[in-house]
Amino acid sequence: MDLVKRVAEILSKASYGIAFTGAGISTESNIPDFRGSQGLWKKFDPRMASRSYFEEDPKGFWSFYAMRYNAIAGAAPNDGHLALAELERRGYIDSVITQNIDTLHTKAGSKSVIELHGNIIWSHCDICSAERRTIECIEEFERSGNPPTCRSCGGLMRPSVVLFEEPVRLMETAIDMAYKSDCCLVVGSSLTVYPAAMVPEVVKRQGGDLIIINMDPTPLDYRADVVIRDKASVILKKLLEFLI
Questions:
Q1: Where do the domains of the chain lie, and which CATH numbers do they carry?
Q2: Other C-beta atoms lying within 10 Å of the C-beta of residue 34
Q3: Is the pTM higher than 0.85?
Q4: Is 117 noted as a catalytic residue in this protein?
């Protein structure tokens, strides 16, 4: 049986389906992933995205995140993002839980989106939590050469993303959804980043179906009901043809 048709059958029977997405769904929007052959961590030290690096070298930290923002800000949703939004509209997916900080699911039209790792469009003060748009912070940084500061208390600003060494505050919400779900559609995730990767694990442990669409192998492939190695946009567009 065609694997995409099998995925369609599983989604058709699901009473509460969730999509779990990672950096791989956004590579077709020209946003590099992290661990692929051209991934971000092949060029940069992952520590640059850590809490300790922010505290030790805020100028270097903001140089890194200015680069990341510029790579993301002009990106548009691709056919994979659009297909997931359409699956939600048609009632086959109830929510998207994403590890991505690029806001492309929201731009594509998805209504229920849990951004586990935050998003890069907004920044906040590390002391008082006052918010500013990240582009304003970057403009201040490039103009002054110094890390942007809070207009209210003078504290350091930082992007509203989850850094390494920080807790994932929305994890409890995501796990609650996983316990309710009887189907998890994984798209473009290596499933190696924890605690986020617990989401599909919980769905499978609860007896739900697990579908993985990813270019590379993942640690959960052996437990999945369907594994497809192909571009997300290709498979998800084809999936829509089976789910009218």
A1: 1-31+77-117+168-244 (3.40.50.1220), 34-74+118-161 (3.30.1600.10)
A2: 18
A3: yes
A4: yes
